[in-house]
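Quick one, tokens below:
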């Protein structure tokens, strides 16, 4: 098998690349705008902002040339200010620039004597003129110009743009690859699954949305595979279970056709048993199918439940009577904690579920052992338990007991009877009534099935009343 080549979808790459370009343009725009907004106050913080401080510092030093020159040198060194201070008659007192600024004209001096401050923005370099001192008769004036910043080296914008576009392309390809590879894997697996390769899975484990999609796809494929295999197993098992009794019936009919009346009469009982088994199988399959339709919210499906008020005692009594008739070798112990709630249920289907559980308890326990049927009120409604002292079920088989046609005791499948639909049908009936069923089992100890059913409307959730005496609180039937 040749190694798979990575082919980047052009549309995906183009979209990611355009997104990268848009991000770059947005970032540059924001940086430029922010720089202008931030740098504008700094630009305004020029000579006029520092002039008040300079005037206060330089005014006492007008008569001290050396100290005044030192102050101007510091202004030039640390603040980048070019300053020239002259007396009102134009005599140079100090300057940190060579040559010093020219004396002011008579018109400017007249304006300065009236305003004490001139802000001249029309020049190439921003110039500020102030009198010394700030208040009172001026003795001198200071001309201050901020040193222009050094010019940055010339930039080759073509190279910069090329580098930016190249970096964006590299990051876009890397980012697109992280998206394209899992998407291509999903597409390949989906096509293979559609061709009937039910064992293919994505195998992607990522902590992002693509990983969630891959896990959801694998889970969906697993469920579909299980459903298809269950359907095939259902058809195969039904075919097998139908073939055995039909073969026995054909043999009995062949004997009858040969004129052996004695053998024909002896075969009538077997034919009756085989027909009952076929009838039970077809009835179980049809009931399970109808319940699946009813619980699947399929349009046009008619729920098979014929609900009516069902007394729990009647349900238990009829189930116990049938079990004693079909399993006379077992000892049945029935206990009911009073009071028991009334159910809103289909009595025939509910009896069917309870009979299936009792049949299983009888089939998988030895004759002479005890089967216990218990009932009591619970917070949700009614709780019923069916416990036996049989062979039990291995822990590995316990999760599969509700699977149609699954039998844990495979070696005794034909001798014990049944086709493995009893528990599956019981669970569907209980679920259709809004209840739950659980199983607990230990090999060699026995199995306990627990049913929880909601009480009839108006009775559900009511607390069970306490009995007045032990005799009234429970009913035991053996």
């Amino acid at each position: 098998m040749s190694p798979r080549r990575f082919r980047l979808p052009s549309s995906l790459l183009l979209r990611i690349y355009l997104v990268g370009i848009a991000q770059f343009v947005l970032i540059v725009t924001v940086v430029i705008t922010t720089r202008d907004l931030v740098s504008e106050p700094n630009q305004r913080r020029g000579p006029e902002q520092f002039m008040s401080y300079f005037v206060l510092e330089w005014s006492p030093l007008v008569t001290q040339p050396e100290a005044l020159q030192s102050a101007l040198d510091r202004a030039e060194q640390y603040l980048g200010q070019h300053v020239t201070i002259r007396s009102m008659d134009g005599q140079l007192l100090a300057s940190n620039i060579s040559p010093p600024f020219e004396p002011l004209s008579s018109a400017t001096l007249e304006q300065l004597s009236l305003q004490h401050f001139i802000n001249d923005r029309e020049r190439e370099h921003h110039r500020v003129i102030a009198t010394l001192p700030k208040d009172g008769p001026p003795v001198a004036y200071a001309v201050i110009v901020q040193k222009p910043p050094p010019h940055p080296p010339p930039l080759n914008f073509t190279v910069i743009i090329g580098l930016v576009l190249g970096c964006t392309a590299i990051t876009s390809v890397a980012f697109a690859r992280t998206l394209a590879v899992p998407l291509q894997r999903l597409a390949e697996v989906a096509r293979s699954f559609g061709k009937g390769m039910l064992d293919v899975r994505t195998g992607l484990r990522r902590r992002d949305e693509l990983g969630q999609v891959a896990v959801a796809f694998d889970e969906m494929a697993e469920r579909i595979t299980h459903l298809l295999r269950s359907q095939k197993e259902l058809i195969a098992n039904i075919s097998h279970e139908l073939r055995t009794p039909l073969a026995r019936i054909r043999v009995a009919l062949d004997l009858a056709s040969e004129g052996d009346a004695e053998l024909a009469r002896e075969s009538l009982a077997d034919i009756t048993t085989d027909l009952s088994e076929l009838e039970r199988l077809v009835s179980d399959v049809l009931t399970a199918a109808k319940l699946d339709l009813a619980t699947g919210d399929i349009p046009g499906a008619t729920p098979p439940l014929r609900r009516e008020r069902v007394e729990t005692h009647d349900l238990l009594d009829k189930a116990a009577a049938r079990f004693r008739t079909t399993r006379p070798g077992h000892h049945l112990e029935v206990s009911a904690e009073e009071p028991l709630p009334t159910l809103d249920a289909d009595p025939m289907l509910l009896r069917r579920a309870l009979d299936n559980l009792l049949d299983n308890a009888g089939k998988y326990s030895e004759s002479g052992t005890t089967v216990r049927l218990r009932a009591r009120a619970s917070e949700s409604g009614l709780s019923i338990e069916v416990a036996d002292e049989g062979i039990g079920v291995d822990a590995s088989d316990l999760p599969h007991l509700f699977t149609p046609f699954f039998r844990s005791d495979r070696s005794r499948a034909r001798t014990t009877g049944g086709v493995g639909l009893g528990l599956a049908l019981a669970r569907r009936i209980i679920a259709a009534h809004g209840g739950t069923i659980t199983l607990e089992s230990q090999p060699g100890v026995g199995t306990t099935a627990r049913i929880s059913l909601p009480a009839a409307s108006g009775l559900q959730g009511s607390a069970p009343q306490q009995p007045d005496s032990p005799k009234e609180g429970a009913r035991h039937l053996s």
